[in-house]
Amino acid sequence: MPSDATTAPKTLITQEMRDKLNVWSEPRISPPVELSDIRKWAIAVYWPDTPPRIFWDEAYAKTTRWGGVIAPREFNPFAWPVERPADLAPKKATRGVGERSMNAGQTETYGVPIRIGDVISARTALVKLEEHVGKLGLTLYRYAEVRWTNQRGEFVRSRVGISILY
Question: What are phi and psi of 165, to 5 degrees?
Fold first, then answer.
């Protein structure tokens, strides 16, 4: 009977993964952001406390350096159900080598704040693949990035999420 070492794959990186590396998806487009969207999000995030006035009080917000209401940094105009790009959707686990996965965290980078009326465009790509051998055996770290821009082409936010396949 062959040992695990002789039957284990030499790589978990498939040709399909290599082909998708740094290929950006078509954009997903949010509906225009409304004051009520920002206000509800801020209430939910800061509950039971009152959210900062910059997120809901238009008169006050006009006196700030922003000159108007802005959304909290973690505001997500895509929070309502949207279709996930098929190439990044989780695969059905069959418990084979490289088919089990777990979330390894994410890193957020912020640019300009989201404002009332903004329409956000989001693109996604697989940006990095790393393999290591550790306690779980051959392990693949997949880095997927989501980049948001507003209708003026300004950078709003990026998120790099890492998933581990083993």
Answer: -110, 135
Which amino acid makes up residue 38? I
* CA dihedral of 36, 41, 47, 52, whole degrees rounded to 10: -70
Structure tokens at 8: 């284990």
Task: For residue 5, give Cα distances in angstroms to 98, 133, 134.
Answer: 14, 12, 13
> Which two structure tokens, joined as six digits, stand for 114?
């989201």
On whether the CB atoms of residues 160 and 148 are closer than 8 A, the answer is: no
- Cis before 2? omega within 30: no
Average confidence (pLDDT) per 10 residues, the chain, 166 residues: 57 90 95 95 96 97 97 90 52 58 92 97 96 87 96 97 91
**Structural domains of the chain, ranges and CATH numbers in brackets:** 4-32+85-165 (3.10.129), 34-76 (no CATH)
Tokens of 127: 């940006």
Rounded to the nearest 10 degrees, how much is the dihedral formed by the CA atoms of 88, 92, 95, 101? 30
Is the whole model's pTM more than 0.70, yes or no? yes
Say how far apart CA 150 and CA 158 lie, in whole Å.
12
CA-wise closest residue to 66 among 115, 117, 120, 119: 115
